[in-house]
Amino acid sequence: MQQRVMKRYKLKSAFCKRFIEWLREKMVSCWGLNLREFDRALIKSTHLIRAELSRNKLGYKTFIGYTYKDISPVPYICNETNRIMPKLGKIKMSSPKNVNDLLEEFLVDIDKKKRKAKVKKRETCLLDYGKKKEKMRPCVEIIYSDKFKDAGDGYQRGMFILANELKEVYGPSEALTRLHDWNSRMGYPIKEEDLNYRITMKSYTLNDTYVNEFLDSVGMNS
Known about the structure:
Radius of gyration: 21 Å
Order of helices and strands: HHHHHHHH
Mean pLDDT: 76
Shape: globular
Helix content: 40-55%
Largest sheet: none
Distance between the termini: 48 Å
Low-confidence stretches: 48-57, 59-63
Number of helices: 8
Structural class: mainly alpha
């Protein structure tokens, strides 16, 4: 098993990052009880569970329990203004009964996802062949507009969405100019080198659902 993992992942850090993300996805799947909406964006973050109402810097991000039964029926805000501090329980360590079985499941699952991703990418390329967007979608125009200044948070992710849309519509050169203009109107929340870096990075196709979910998370319903 160790040889298989080392063959697949040249760097230990790369394996650890992907394996932990895979474990978090499995953990999230256990929360499908419709008691609280789980922020799946946290799967690739440095923490797993977001405290109630902590968006837009209203409260701390903290661990809220070990099972769904530990969740308070009345959401409350923890911040420095009201002096309510998060309640942290005793740390409980866990270990799998059979590590090899867990790693085997991980490797098989990753292979399946890679094969599905290749098929989906090929199908997308065939569907989008020869197509080009003529203008920004309305949901992305909200991010580009001055209205987005009222969001109060989410500039990095907003810039990521906007950069990909602008590149697709106008091309890299004009996209960078428009991105700088947007950053200026927002009050320069993003560093200039970050804007330049994003334009030169790989482009991603972000569907309307992804953009609208982001707008909802920052209170900018489209």
